[in-house]
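<goal> How does this chain fold?
<body> The protein record starts here
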Amino acid sequence: MPPDSETPNSGPIRNSLYRNLFLSMADGILIGTIVHDAAGQPADIRILDANPAYLQQYRREYQDTRGRLLSEVTAYQGSETLWAARGDKVLDTGVPQYYEGVGGRPDQWVLVILSKVSEKHLAIVIKDMTKRKKAEDAVRQSEQQHRQLADQLQEADRSKDVFIATLGHELRNTLTPLVNSVEILNHTVPHSAQTGRALTTIERQIEQVNYLIHDLLDINRIKQNQLQLERERQDLRQLVQNAVQGLRPSFYKKALKVKTNLPKQPVWADVDPARMGQVIGNLLQNAHKFTPTGGTVTITLADDKAKGVARLIVRDTGIGIPDSLKDAIFQPFIQIPGQQKERPAGLGLGLALARDLVCQHSGKIWAENPKNAKGAKFIIELPLVNSQTTDSKECPDSPSSKHRRYHVLIIDDNRELALSFSELLGLLQFEARVAYSGGDGLQALLESKPDVILCDLTLPDMSGCHFAQKMREYPEHKDIPLIAITGYSLTAQIEEVYEAGFDRLLIKPINIHHLQSAILDVISERYPHD
């Protein structure tokens, strides 16, 4: 089709309406026909018209474009045959084709649409996608960076969890010989007033470190949804009395008055006694920390039958809580600023753990400042139950309860810990033998058959679970009671421990009463007529 003139306003599109649309489009448009070679195969495209957007995109003059072959104007030599073949197919079928890739310039990204406009004429629409492509690349790069950052944070979080678990294990392994040694001294050394005070101080400090370890590990377990409650119906009065009694020496040392207002009738709740005792203990420790010498801490327990809740209030005469922190203090590591010289800093975990444990008991906890009075007030509400329906288990009367001299095999690679267990069990009328690896433990079994085995879960040559499995392979040993001991918090792996053949799992450091009770319990379960 011969051109009318050498201007963009002339060309094969003659209708004024469509001509104006062609000229005003923001996308580059070429109108062309297919050029065939001597064999009749599509070889090139002759450009019959080009709109201003195309000319601007590729910085070309209209007179240098119209009438030229695509091979003469494109930056990519050899691509004309491909485009001619595509264009020929479009003219033959009438079906448009789409192509996205590098444009006429190396820095350009385009979407090309080939469509049929007449029997011989082909429209090539070139949409400049460079900005969108760069934006998409930027988004992808940002997403990749965020994924990498998320992976790094996840790995850091995992490393932190491993660090906390390992720290707890190492601290517990260190505390256990200390706890055992104090018990040994209590049973063997004649006490003067000085040694009595020294042992009391050691016991109190060990208990404080133990509290910190438990809080740290429990916060981590709750975050990972690994903390499991063992609920039973409890009289909350007894839990309050136990918590107060356990911390009374600390309050006495600081000359703090402790008042308890408990009802005469039992207040029953369905709770995990150890965990709820931990909650009450943490609130009392918090009151102890923030109340100056000579102050008062008051614990009030009541049952609100109308609302169906038990209400526990711990009130102190300390520094109080800023209004801006009444909610924040229940977050981990948040502490009330100031007064650092008058009180130990702590880890800022006690209240966070108390909140999480109360919530797991379907309860509520919040803080208030008493009206017209100094100090702070913490309120806990727990669902009431009607009466006690569970039987309480009878515990051994004392660490020196009489029984026949059972033989205990202790397997632990921490020599001081194992030997302190051995001495302590000897004082409790047990006969103890020590092995420092799984292999040594199996060898000890060949030499004599113990009544019960205490086995650490982390041994130098095999895991405690592996030892249990190997031991159970021998018919003569398969009925020996097994107690696992560990410094790790293994909430997620408890099932694995019991599947390996253990009868009990004890977390270090182990209370002397709990240790004796566990040994006697597993022996009575395995040998009920012994």
Observations:
- Residues 1-5, 339-345, 388-401 have pLDDT under 50 and may be disordered.
- The longest strand covers residues 28-36.
